[in-house]
Amino acid sequence: MDLFVALERPVEQPVLVSAQLSARISRRLQGRRVDVILSTPNLRTLPIHDVARREGVLL
Q1: What is the pTM of this model?
Q2: CB-based burial of residue 8 (10 Å sphere; 0-12 exposed, 13-18 middle, 19+ buried)?
Q3: Which of 12, 18, 29, 56: disulfide with 36, CB 3.0–4.6 Å?
Q4: Rounded CA gap, 51 and 30, in Å?
Q5: Mean pLDDT by 10 residues, the chain (59 residues)
């Protein structure tokens, strides 16, 4: 499962934040793997961000 998270504020350690979110959600889902994709003002926009915005389901 992939989860796209858009934040309005910059994140100092995006890799750490992404890993922490992934671990917490995975525990709630009985170990199911969750990949977290972050979008913040201080991160470069990649093609995966465009795909997530275009094809994702808003929660």
Answers
A1: 0.81
A2: exposed
A3: 18
A4: 27
A5: 93 94 94 92 94 89
